[in-house]
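Can you give me the bound-state structure? Components:
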Amino acid sequence: MKYVMLGLLGVSLAALAVVAACSPEHDAPVTRPAEPSDVIDRDLMIALGQAKNLHRKARIYMTDGNLPAATAAIRQVLSLQFPKGAAEAEDVRNDARALLAKLLVSQGQIDEATRTVDEGLAQSGRESFFVANLYTVQGEIHEARAAAFDAAGDPGKASAGDERHAAIESYDKSIHINERLQKKLLEER
Amino acid sequence: MATQDDDTLTGAVPDPDTEPTPTELARARRFADLVDKTLSGRTPPAMSADDRALLEVATVIRATSGGLELAPSAARAAVEDALRQAIGVDAVGASTGPVMRAPMRRWAPWAIAGASALVAAAAIAMLWLRGPVAGPSVARVPSEWTSRPADPLVGPIARDRAGDASARIDAIFADRLDGFRARRLARGGTP
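Here's the bound-state model for the whole set.
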């Protein structure tokens, strides 16, 4: 009997302790600063500045007709270190991949250009105008392949047709992404 | 000077068949009155040594003959002493007030435990009914200070501008630099 009574008292005291621990003083709203990855910091500006300079460097090389040097400069953009979680990183890399693919196509490296675009599409975590641009470049690559098959004569006619069909599909994907994003941006305004 | 009345215990023992003298009868009646007064709690404050000795003998004889009841106050004192010893209270040092009655002793712990359980239940109910407490609030910063997708800044990329990445990175850098500077100024120049 005595132990039952002591048990009741213990349970009651424990319940009161729990209630006291959960009192509003313990979980009062506090203001905490935004996460470091949410704001524009020095590291993000450094990465963006390096990308900007590499693009300028590539533009000068392109003006001089030095496409291999321009290609090398753009490849360096892909290896830049951005702050973790920075949304700009994916956009900058996809834009560099689009330019890199065009440079490779102009140098006859169509397979390498295809691989560059496919990697960019595979690594993209969200739809963006830059992803749509990659699909546009992908369509251009298919057109370049079709032109190459056309240049081969009658044996390449069928493959050229397939490539042109693939190009249309790529352009359609680009168009749909642009439409969805524009609609979304209009709704957010 | 000693009298015959003073040699009751030391004088010669009279023959049992001898008729009592008037003096002996008077002494017997007086002693009977003394015994009655003592039994009724009205013992005279002063008496002779012989009377006191005889009175003690008479009291013992009466007690041993049975049928003697304790006075109510004496009986209550004896019971309370026994109860104090049973609950571990010093019988000598304890107050002369009455010990807690048995039913109250039996129910008091249950009453205390029940009351504390009720208080705990009421506290839990209040916690339940209070509803969720607002969680920690995050300080909002202007969107231009934050890292974010560049889509609103760049817009749809036309096919003839597909390779114009240099112009787009210039625009992105300039826009983010504005946000970085604004945040830095708002923080007093610290990055």
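A couple of observations. The two ends of chain B are 125 Å apart (CA to CA). Chain B touches chain A through 51 residues (CB under 8 Å).
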